[in-house]
Amino acid sequence: MNVWLARHASSSAPPGRAWGWTDFELSAAGRRQVRALARNLADVPLDHVFSSDLQRSWQTAEGVARAQRIPVQRSSRLREVNFGAWEGQRLEALWDSDPLQAQAWESDPRNFPASFGESYAQFERRVHGFLDSIPRCENLLVVAHRGSLALLEAKLTRSTFAQTFARGLAPGAVTRLVTSSC
């Protein structure tokens, strides 16, 4: 199975804040990134394109899928982590308001603060549930968010979430994984 993981292109969200489930469309720079991503994947014979159901992801996926004349299959299971009380907040504020939770999260990204809208275990079950539902042995593009892509990459490559999250993908970037799941 060949899986291309792409982070959604740049959105209209104000920078420097925790944006998980807030639904932003692409920015002008993001639309340019989508065109570049579509060009980069033009020679890749994709069988399926999957996307988070949030605009910034599915608009990115649509740009690639349209060029290949295949539909985008949207899934809420690919959403970013639910930041709960921290949605829209500057994450550095967590270090001021709850330095112990912030330090625990910084030392291990699986230690989600209790004020988030979901635990790491819930997030992992949601994203892994998506992975368990997709076809095997085909060429797939998955367009989603930094956290959900890190979970997918960790599961597919048998890496740790900390490793894949630290590596991350820039907005509009793509990475190819070849798995032996077939």
Summarize the topology.
Layout: E1 2-7, H1 28-40, E2 48-52, H2 55-68, E3 72-75, H3 92-97, H4 99-107, H5 120-133, E4 139-144, H6 146-157, H7 161-167, E5 174-178
Describe the overall structure.
This protein is an alpha/beta fold and 182 residues long. It has one domain: 3-Layer(aba) Sandwich (Rossmann fold). The protein is built from 7 helices and 5 strands; from the N terminus they run βαβαβαααβααβ. It has helices at residues 28-40, 55-68, 92-97, 99-107, 120-133, 146-157, 161-167; strands at 2-7, 48-52, 72-75, 139-144, 174-178. Strands 3-2-4-1-5 form a 5-stranded mixed sheet, with helices on both faces. The longest helix has 14 residues, at 55-68. The chain starts with a strand and ends with a strand.
What are the key terms here?
single chain; 182 residues; alpha/beta; Rossmann fold; five-stranded mixed beta sheet; 5 strands; 41% helix; 14% strand
In this structure, how is the largest beta sheet organized?
Answer: 5 strands, mixed
Q: Output the structural class.
A: alpha/beta
N-to-C series of helices and strands = EHEHEHHHEHHE
Q: Indicate the CATH architecture.
A: 3-Layer(aba) Sandwich
- On the 0 to 100 scale, the average pLDDT is 93
Strand order of the largest sheet: 3-2-4-1-5
- Separate helix tally: 7
Unreliable sequence segments: none
Q: What's the CATH superfamily, by name?
A: Phosphoglycerate mutase-like
Q: What's the number of domains?
A: 1
Number of strands: 5
Percent of residues in β-strands: 5-15%
| Structural Rg | 16 Å
- Shape estimate: globular
Q: Helix share of residues?
A: 40-55%
- Under CATH, the topology is which? Rossmann fold
Q: First CA to last CA: what distance?
A: 6 Å
Look at the structure and give the CATH class: Alpha Beta
Query: What multimeric state do the chains show?
Result: single chain
